[in-house]
């Protein structure tokens, strides 16, 4: 009996390390949600913003190999199996990405852009405060230099 428990434990460890166990758990959760999903109840039609948000999330989930989570999102949201084109999403959001960043989900690009804007804003606020102490010239030079380096 002890050998069976050891074998079971070893097998569970191997499946856990390979990520198979978590994948199976995700698949089971997805199938449970699909089974519980009442097809008779009409879901409200999502507005354009919701569709764009769902597409950004789907792209992120699929990129990170969260297959079952992406499947659940598509099922629950009623999104099409065919994703919106990256060009269309960028035009709707008034965003243009560089060719090398198109390999990443658009959410990564948006977060990076917002965090860079925050750094620039923090630097501007810091420069305004230091100008009162007579160090404005040095800091403006530093700000300009770091801003150009970020570009």
TrEMBL record:
Instruction: Specify the protein name.
Output: Fopnl
FGFR1 oncogene partner (FOP) N-terminal dimerisation domain sequence ranges: 48-112
Instruction: Please state the protein's primary subcellular location.
Output: cytoplasm
Q: Which PANTHER family match?
A: CENTROSOMAL PROTEIN 20-RELATED, FGFR1 ONCOGENE PARTNER/LISH DOMAIN-CONTAINING PROTEIN
Family assignment from sequence similarity: Belongs to the CEP43 family.
Q: Where is the composition biased (Polar residues)?
A: 123-134
User: Which BP terms in the Gene Ontology apply to this protein?
Assistant: cilium assembly; microtubule anchoring
Lineage of origin: Eukaryota, Metazoa, Spiralia, Lophotrochozoa, Bryozoa
**Which UniProt key words apply to this protein?**
Cell projection, Cilium biogenesis/degradation, Cytoplasm, Cytoskeleton
Recorded source organism is Bugula neritina (Brown bryozoan)
Read off the InterPro entries from this record.
FOP_dimerisation-dom_N (IPR018993), LisH (IPR006594)
Stretch list, region Disordered: 119-151
- Localisation per UniProt entry: Cytoplasm, Cytoskeleton, Cilium basal body; Cytoplasm, Cytoskeleton, Microtubule organizing center, Centrosome
Q: Which Pfam families match?
A: FOP_dimer
GO cellular component terms given for this protein: centrosome; ciliary basal body; motile cilium
